[in-house]
Amino acid sequence: MSRTKHAIRPIMAGRLATVAEAAEHLRLSESAIQLMCAKGKFKGAVQPNGSGSEWRIPGESILVYYPGCQATLGSKEKALRVME
User: Fold this and answer.
1) Who has the most CB within 10 Å: 20, 23, 53, 80?
2) Whole-number average pLDDT of the chain
3) Three-state secondary structure readout of the chain
4) Residue 54 predicted with pLDDT over 50
5) CA 63 to CA 43: how far, in whole Å?
């Protein structure tokens, strides 16, 4: 029996993405994305069930943050500088 990795849905404008999806797209850790959400780095990011729940991030905020990030080496370093 073969195992297949669960496919991450593509980031799209008009859709709320999970932390895992944003992390995959931006090639950052989930904890880095959560910290960025908490610091207000993604416009419109919300915790629908209140503090302590999973963040939901508008796709357009992710796409605007680093468009074409997957093809850019060093994007992690850029994101970490922005988080400071």
Assistant:
1) 23
2) 75
3) CCCCCCCCCCCCCCCEEEHHHHHHHHCCCHHHHHHHHHCCCCCCCECCCCCCCCCEEEHHHHHHHCCCHHHCCCHHHHHHHHHC
4) yes
5) 11
